[in-house]
C-alpha cells in the first residue's frame, strides 16, 4: 500500500466533509427512524478538499504519486492535518467495562484507540470506543473481567485510506506549484 508523500497541505482552501451512511424512514404521524447502512466502523466516510502550495520539485513528486494511483487504481495512506492525537487521563475498570476520563477528549463512538495503561494492571491494546458519555468520558470493553484503576494514555491514529477523486496542478510562477485535490476515504480490508 502506498503512502502519500510527506508534504503538508496549506489551510487556505482546506475543508472536510462528512456524510454518514444513514437510511431514514419517515412515517405519516411524524415518527422517524434512522438506520445505519453498512458496517459500524464504516459509517462516516469523509472527503477532504486539500490545497498544497509546494516547490516545483515537491509538486512534481505529488503529481507523479497521484498519477500513479490513478493508473494502478490503488488506495493510499494519508494523515490529514490535525487528525489523530495522543492524550492522557485516568481509567477505572469494573468487570469488562473500562471507563476512561480525559478532559475534552474529542473521541467518538466507534473510534479505534491504541490504549496504554501506564499504571494499574489493565491490559494494553487496541480498543473500539463503546460509548462517549460526555465531553470527558468514554468506555471501552476489555477482553477479561477485572477491577483496576490508574493512569492511561490513548492514541487515535490519524492515518486513513483514501483515493484521489480529482486534482488540479497550477504553476503560479517559476519554481512553485499549487495542487488542489479531493481525497475520499475508503474502507478496505
Textual characterization of the structure:
The chain is mostly beta strands. The protein is built from one helix and twelve strands. It has one helix at 56-72, and strands at residues 2-3, 10-18, 22-26, 32-36, 46-55, 76-78, 85-101, 112-117, 125-134, 137-156, 160-170, 176-185. The chain has a six-stranded mixed sheet, covered by helices on one side. Strands 7, 8, 9 and 10 form a four-stranded antiparallel sheet that branches. It has a two-stranded antiparallel sheet with strand order 3-4. A hairpin with a 5-residue loop joins strand 3 and strand 4. The radius of gyration is 21 Å and the shape is globular.
Task: Produce the secondary structure layout.
Layout: E1 2-3, E2 10-18, E3 22-26, E4 32-36, E5 46-55, H1 56-72, E6 76-78, E7 85-101, E8 112-117, E9 125-134, E10 137-156, E11 160-170, E12 176-185
Parallel strand pairs: 1-6
Antiparallel strand pairs: 2-5, 3-4, 5-12, 6-11, 7-10, 8-9, 8-10, 9-10, 11-12
Describe what is shown at a glance.
With about 190 residues, the chain is mainly beta.
Q: Keywords for this structure?
A:
single chain, 189 residues, mainly beta, 6-stranded mixed sheet, 4-stranded antiparallel sheet, 12 strands
Amino acid at each position: 500500500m502506498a503512502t502519500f508523500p510527506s508534504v503538508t497541505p496549506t489551510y487556505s482552501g482546506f475543508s472536510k466533509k462528512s456524510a454518514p451512511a444513514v437510511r431514514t424512514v419517515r412515517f405519516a404521524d411524524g415518527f422517524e427512524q434512522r438506520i445505519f447502512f453498512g458496517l459500524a466502523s464504516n459509517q462516516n466516510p469523509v472527503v477532504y478538499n486539500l490545497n498544497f502550495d509546494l516547490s516545483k520539485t515537491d509538486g512534481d513528486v505529488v503529481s507523479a504519486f497521484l498519477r500513479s494511483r490513478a493508473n494502478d487504481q490503488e488506495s493510499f495512506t494519508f494523515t490529514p492535518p490535525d487528525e489523530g492525537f495522543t492524550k492522557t487521563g485516568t481509567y477505572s475498570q469494573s468487570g469488562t467495562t473500562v471507563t476512561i476520563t480525559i478532559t475534552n477528549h474529542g473521541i467518538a463512538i466507534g473510534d479505534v484507540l491504541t490504549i496504554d495503561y501506564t499504571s494499574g494492571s489493565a491490559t494494553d491494546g487496541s480498543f473500539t470506543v463503546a460509548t462517549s458519555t460526555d465531553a470527558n468520558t468514554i468506555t471501552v470493553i476489555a477482553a477479561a473481567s477485572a477491577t483496576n484503576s490508574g493512569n492511561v494514555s490513548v492514541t487515535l491514529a490519524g492515518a486513513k485510506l483514501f483515493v484521489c477523486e480529482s486534482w488540479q496542478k497550477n504553476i503560479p510562477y517559476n519554481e512553485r506549484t499549487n495542487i488542489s485535490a479531493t481525497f475520499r476515504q475508503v474502507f478496505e480490508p
